[in-house]
Design brief:
2 helices, alpha+beta, five-stranded antiparallel β-sheet, three-stranded antiparallel β-sheet
Length: about 160
């Protein structure tokens, strides 16, 4: 009788945990992610940057971004960025003010560069967070391929 009660107890405890998570879990297998990164790197070699969205859950997006050239400055109105650097290095500039800032209809602000920001070197393995409303820009050294997993969290 005790042997029957233990699995029943475990099943009872497991159901509420599954219900709380909505029953949704997704794995992005490393070989598939690397394959996507390789394809994006080929695109970025000619265009300077390439990205893809692996999933969009409404509350957050999971993306891969690859760059071979520096990006412009930007401020996200509604998204926090979490970046996990996979390859290469870059200079991340945060804070300050955006030069030639233009805000589009969805509240995103873009410009050519940042004045008065803080510069930090980031490299493979680093995890970076940039909250919504914070000016930021990635400067990519010449001859470098930089890639990151990016999780955009909706505020």
């Amino acid at each position: 009788m005790k042997l029957f009660a233990i699995p029943l107890l475990l099943a009872t405890l497991a159901v509420p945990a599954w219900a709380q998570s909505g029953g949704k879990a997704e794995v992005f297998a490393a070989p598939a992610v690397r394959s996507q990164e390789t394809a994006l790197a080929a695109q970025a070699a000619t265009s300077g940057s390439a990205s893809t969205t692996l999933a969009d859950y409404g509350s957050h997006k999971v993306q891969i971004s690859v760059r071979t050239v520096s990006g412009g400055a930007e401020i996200h109105a509604h998204f926090d960025d979490v970046m996990i650097v996979q390859q290469g290095s870059a200079t991340l500039i945060t804070g300050g003010s955006i030069v030639d800032a233009k805000t589009n209809a969805d509240g995103e602000t873009k410009g050519t560069s940042i004045e008065g920001g803080k510069s930090q070197t980031i490299a493979s393995g680093d995890i970076i967070t940039v909250n919504a409303g914070v000016p930021h820009q990635l400067l990519i050294p010449a001859g470098t391929t930089y890639s990151a997993l990016v999780i955009k969290v909706r505020e």
